[in-house]
Structure formats: structure tokens, C-alpha cells
Amino acid sequence: MQQEIESLYSDHHGWLQGWLRRKLGNASDAADLAHDTFLRILAGRHAADILEPRKYLVTIANGLVIDRFRRQAIESAYLETLAARPEPLAVSPETRALILETLFAIDRMLDELGPRSREIFLLAQFEGLGYAQIGERLGVSVTTVKKHLVRALARCLALAAD
Predict the structure, then answer these.
(1) Domain coverage including residue 28
(2) Within this chain, do residues 97 and 158 fall inside the same structural domain, yes or no?
(3) DSSP of 142-160
(4) What are the RNA polymerase sigma-70 region domain coordinates in residue numbering (predicted)?
(5) Which of the two ends of the chain, N or C, has the fewest CB atoms closer than 10 A to its terminal CB?
């Protein structure tokens, strides 16, 4: 396996880093994401099983680019909110890092829920709608709303336990 990984790396690393540099416009970020792409392959499957290496590498790298942009958007929104706070209420760098990590984890959890469960959870949590109101708005039964909300809340509890 190590030889396949070494071959995959030596044959395609430079190409992937160039592709990422063009996509991101930043050589440093491109190098980081190229490295992360190969780490994902090391953690995942055997390089010998990869039939179309560049297509496979682009798929992994593109997912990492999307994750990076999502994290940057969350961090930017948080920093804007933080900047709008009065100075005496500003948080320490340690607290800020914990809050950002929590927000990233919540974002991942919501992304993994599926569209229906995510929408039901957000309607209940942020708009304060009850089961019947959510069911009416989405055109689903109260039982369906409860099922999806239980799924979402179970994920929240698992996230809190971690």
C-alpha cells in the first residue's frame, strides 16, 4: 500500500497543488489542502483501488475547499457579531476558539442531518414554531415533524456528549 500511495503522491501532488492554487489563488492554502487530500486517502482507501486518480483527488480536494469556505464564512459571521458587541463584553481568545469550534461542529451536524430534518430543527429552534405549525408549513404530518425533530435533537445530544 505504501508504494501505491508514494506513486500516487509523486505522480499527482504537483498537479493537484497547481489545481488548488488556481482555484484558491493562494499557494499556502493550496499546499495545505493538497496535503490534507493525501491524508484523507491515507486514512481511507487503498491507492491501488483508485481507477482515475486525478478525478478522485479533485473530488476530495473540492470537498476540502468547500469545507474551508464554509468555515471561513462561519468565522467571518462570528467575528462580525463579536465586533458589534460592546468592548466590556468581548470574549477571550480561548473562549473565542471554543465558540468557533462549537459553531463548526453544529454546522457539520446540521449538514449531516438531511434537508427535511435540518429544516424542521431550524424552524423549531429559531422560529419557535410548534409541531403543528411546522407540519402545516411543510405539508407533512405532526408525526413526521416529531420523527425528524427527535433525530435532530439526538444528534445535538451526541454532539454535546462529545
Answers:
(1) 1-90
(2) yes
(3) HHHHHHHHHHHHHHHHHHH
(4) 8-73
(5) C
Q: Quote the cell numbers at residue 6.
A: 508514494
91 close to 123: Cβ distance less than 8 angstroms: no
The angle that helices 142-161 and 131-138 make with each other, rounded to 10 degrees, is 110
Concatenated DSSP letters for 69-137?
Answer: HHHHHHHHHHHHHHHTS-GGGPPPHHHHHHHHHHHHHHHHHHHHH-HHHHHHHHHHHHS---HHHHHHH
The CATH number for 110's domain is 1.10.10.10
Q: Biggest alpha carbon distance in the chain?
A: 59
Q: Taking 70 as the threshold, does the pLDDT of residue 19 lie above it?
A: yes
Name the band, by pLDDT with cuts 50, 70 and 90, for residue 31.
very high
Closest CA to 9 of 155, 66, 1: 1
- pLDDT 10s digits, 73-93: 998 988 888 778 776 666 788
